[in-house]
Each structure stands twice: as structure tokens, then as C-alpha cells.
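Exercise 7.
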Amino acid sequence: MGCRAYMAAIAQGDATLYVGVMPAGQVLRHATVDYWAPGTATGYQRPLVAKRVREVANYLVEGRAVMPTSIVLSVRHDGDLAFQPQDASSGTRWGLVAIGEGAQLWVVDGQHRLEGLRHAIEDGHGDLSEFQLPTTILVGATPLDELVLFYTINTKQRRIPSDIINQHLAILKRRYGEEFVTEFGISAELRARASTIVDHLNEMEGPWRGKVMVPGVPGREAGLVRHNTLVASLRDVLADPALNAYSEQSVAALLIGYWEALRRLMPDAFQTPGDYTVQAATGIYAFHIVFRRVFDLARKAKRTDSETMERALRYAGEFVTSRFWHRVHGNDMARATGMQSIRNLAARIVGKLPGPDLLSC
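Solution. The predicted structure, written as C-alpha cells, is:
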């Protein structure tokens, strides 16, 4: 059984493209994927990622699904597709595309979307067979032509910077609430919460005020650290269940008190931060891991103010001295770049901290 669709015929260079909309069920009947495998001469598609297929299927069955980006398909044999022009009054040729029974539509871009649709349909959501898919069909392309197009699509498009994604999630959370963002996954909810906290850190009086490179803000290059670096470092902070009841502004206030304590202990490092790594990725990640322990000690002492956190941090000795964190003359651990090395550094700092009884004295 073939299929028909009303589409526009578009010429781009030597290629003819047919652009329009097709029901998902029709596309799935003809869709074929040319997978890469060792020894294949022209296969180019990567293996399916089951997690991504499930995510697409779940997104579709929630009922709010919108897929505006076109699926890109290829008909390798001219005889498998016929075009009957019907209207060219607008300057674009419109007509009826007929795809023959048994013809193959080779999937150049969109295999996870298509497999997500197949998964949802086979899981009892048959109505998605009529889901209208924006579709682009190339005719007469060779497998190597498809490979080139696949490479172009997947390497020339730039991903949205993480800083911008974090801001998007924070906006959605403020507008629609936490439950809406949670639908994008736990990670998205945490990023939305962390992004708002970082905005507060950059705006409230404290060691981070005006020091965060905020996307789209003129002069961002003058900042010390990218917005996303701080957002990512807060995952360890927000993993503490004790902070669930705190608003983003309250968490920011706690963190400002904590960093104020560090600034009092290491004034030189904060006076000329470019010469030290305390307010660079190494220090940020390490001290945010340490924060959970310091905050726990302060809570048990029934005082979560900056002075109490400073008392706890003083026990860390050389780890809270400017000398340790100097970029050139400091300890090698202060220049760590891998997360495992940073976690080892944080563990050593935590190992120096007092027990709750000592802090309560």
C-alpha cells in the first residue's frame, strides 16, 4: 500500500525537494534506516538510543506534543515517487506526491522521532498514526549524498548554549510552576531552580554580585565565571533534602553567607580573583560540595549565619588560605580540572571540618 500527500516541489541547486505534511503512520510504513556498521561502505545512521525513543514516546502521549522540525527522508529511485503538479500560481509548484507500494523512505534525519512515534502507537496510542509530521523528501539521492546531508545536519547546527537553556527553564518555572518544568525531567527542574539561585547571587550584595557572565547581557566577558558553571556546581548543593523547603532567594542568601565566610578567611583571593582559583571552576565546585557539610553542621548548631559557617571552615586550615589557591604558586590540587580530582579535594576539606559538638561549643 503506497501513500499520497499534497506537497510543494522546491529546487535547491541540483536537488529537488518535496516539502509538506504526512501522517506518521504512512511515513512509518515506508521508513528505512541505513545504519553504520563495521565493514559497511555507505551506512551512516547511528544506533538508536532506547532512552531517547522512550522520551519521545512519553512526550507524544502527554497530549501537548509539537514537532515543528521536518523529518528528512530520501527516495533513492526516481520511479518510487511520482509528482503530479496541480498549482503553481504562488510561484511554488504544488501537487500530489505519490509513493509507490514497497518503496523505501530512507531516514536521513529524525529516526528517534519516528521510532518514538512507532513505540507510542504500538503501546496503544493508535491515534498517533494520524499525527501530522512536517516532512522533506529528497529524490534520486545516493547513499553517499545522504551521508553528506546527515553529516551536514548533525555538525553544522550549533547546540543552544547551556547558559541559555538554564535561563529558558527558569522562565518556564516562574511562569508555569515547578510541576510544569518537572515534566522535562528531574535534571531540568534542578537546573531551573539553580539558574534562579545564580541570578540572585549575581544581583544580591555579596562576593558574586556582578561577577557572573549572564548570556545576552552586554559586558558579560568582564565576569569571572559562566552562568552555567555556577548552575552545574549547585547540583551538589540542591541534592541536600534539607534545602527543599527553602526558596531560591533563601538558598542564595545562605550561599552568600557561606562565600562571605570564605572571603573573610581568604581576602587576597577575593581581592584579585583572577590570580586565584577560588572563584574559578575548581574552587566553585569544591566549595559547593563542602557546603553541604558546613550547612549541616550549622543547622545542628542551630545557627546558619555566616559567622557560624566561618567557624566551621576555619578547621580546614591551609585549604582556606589564599596561598593554597594561588594560580601560579598555590597547591597543585587548587588547579585540578577533572571532577574526580575536585571531589577528592572537597573530601579532604570535609575531613578537616569539626564534629557538630565542637561547633556547638
